[in-house]
Amino acid sequence: QITTLINHKDKPKRSDKTLQAIQRVGQAVNLAVGRFVTVGEAIANENHELKEEMSVACIEARRAGETIAQLTDVASLDHPESDSHITIFTDKTGVVKAARLLLSSVTKVLVLADRIVIKQIITSRNKVLATMEQLEKVSSFQEFVQIFSQFGNEMVEFAHLTGDRQNDLKDEKKKARMAASRAVLEKCTMMLLTASKTCLRHPDCESARINKDGVFHRMRLALEQVIEIVTDSRPNGENEMAPISIYSSIKEFKIKVEGLRENLYFLSKENLSTMLEVILEHTEDFTDSAYTSHEHREHILELSKQAKMELEQLVSVWMQAQNQKTKDLMEDLEVAILKTCQCMNELKREVHSAATSLAADLLKYHTDHMVLKALKITGVEGNLEAAAEYTCKLSEQKEQLVEMCRLLRHVSGTEPLEITCIHAEDTFQVTGPQIISAAETLALHPSSKIAKENLEVFCEAWESQLSDMSLLLREINDVFEGRRGEKRVYLSLPRPGKHNANLKALKPVKLDTEEQAKIAKLGLELHLLTSDVDSETEKWEDQENEIVQHGQGMSSMAYSMYLFTRGEGLLKTTQDLFHQAEIFATEGTKLASALHALSDQVHDDDKPLLLLEAEKLISMCKQLQIAAKASAQGKSATFTKVDACILKTRNVMTLLCQLLPLCCKLLRKNKAGNGCLKSAPPWKEDRIRTGTNARTPERRVDTFGIKSLENHVTNMTFLESK
């Protein structure tokens, strides 16, 4: 609205309609500022240390809003220029100044509100830490129950505050770190309860004390990490060391190599050689691993050797091209660039195969949880010798799983998935010894119900992490195979806490169970269509074809919309769905453009049919965009809009199922015929589909979620009353 006013063009003649429109915009800005400032003032009254700064910023914003309203009060003036009343037409500079003041003061209010949120989280963390110290020192059961009830309530508050903050974070890497830390805190809350109770029941047991100390230590680390993320700082001013993976290193290396096409002098050959050396050093994690198969190890070593040779050839041609830029040399350089990149793609494919096949085998082998079951049995029997034997086996299993996580991190494909792998590695590393200490305690006290319950809790955490690894492996494969791309960023609106109760806001809503049931059939049809489209795209020889990539992107988005009808997936609210529908329609329009481009290459007989289908697609996508942007107030109207968006998406997917085989057929026909389509040069890079394809939307990685902690507190109180 402000931009509309600033960019308003001065015209000699102004209609009443124009004057009224300008006035409406000015009034709308002023009203919006008024609502915003009301929230800011309410927050200021609750936080005295920032009250003065917040009040000043709110006053500035209100004044600027009123100035804009006055300068745009032109609807009733027939000849604004001749009147003494100053308006946007006589003083446009005044509007610009007011707009600048407004934007700076609104920004100040937001920054101050953010500082308050950060302070709330730090205060909540400090409360939790203080209560944890009390819990560590208690010696009586009754005292522990009282303090733990307080601790549980404080953890609930901390979980809510950090959950809101996690949703507000724009950086997906920070989001993943926050999710990992909160998951640790959630699981450790129950562990802390049983470990502390076991220690109180068996105060002289060394293994019980070690078990409890491990939980407290891990919780403190997780609390510290949350504060690091929230305040964007590191202890002692340290810089965060980003984990380096083979995937990201190869991606960066290829960007540099391909950059030689545009500029032969932007980096040195030493830089490029160093980058390759770093990549090959990382491959040693695979070749040195005892769990990498002989076949994978040999292939990785061969490709590493080939990569060195390809780079040597590239550098040789590159140096010649710098001295003499002839056509032949530039063609040789292009061939060298493509060969180098193709070799790196093959290396990436090989390490991915090595990591994921190892992970799949290990997860399958450990699904029966035989070692955990044996530890529980030997503990209850009090068989210390057998318990020691199985703790050794668990230690071996832990080493295997930790190595699996390290290798998966190299091929994870995105920073959030890398962080998830690191979190999984830490979890196995820490939980393994904790299970062992809990098992030792039970073996020493086989009749202790609390020691048995404690071991169960730690075993459940191990099993839960193994289950998470199966999901993580699927996510990593999705990225590698191009079924996922860049993340969508969800920007949450500033929340004024309890003060928004009297302010009307458009709240994104979820479908309830009844609505999900009504739309289930339509969702299922959409799911089947995505499978059909995926089958059709897999039939194409050239997976880099623009039509295929658009088709894959649309299929991925449609699948997310199907998951929404089941109450699953990353589309959490109706607003998310409508936004996704708009992006889907835009992708469809891009596909139509690709079809038009293809029509210029096919035979004249085939051209009309292709153009007709392209026009159909454009029309359907426009209808979907209109439906997604339509206003909907109330529950019934919102559901009708959801239904319309899903229905129109299904129609587009139905057309896409017909289009893909048609295009594939036309391409083959031309290729086999008189060569109307230019064939690719034999040295064309055989690129694989990767998760960096920005066209395809990503199902957000949200492997870890905080469950409500109220249950822990309630269950604890109930158990102790028994």
UniProtKB/TrEMBL annotation:
It comes from the Eukaryota. Its main location: cytoplasm. It is found in: Cytoplasm. Belongs to the vinculin/alpha-catenin family. This is Alpha-catulin. Signal peptide: none annotated. The keyword Secreted does not apply. InterPro entries: Alpha-catenin/vinculin-like_sf, CTNNAL1, Vinculin/catenin. GO terms for cellular component: cytoplasm. One of its GO terms (molecular function) is actin filament binding. It comes from Anthoscopus minutus. GO terms for biological process: cell adhesion; Rho protein signal transduction. The keyword Cytoplasm applies. Keywords: Cytoplasm.
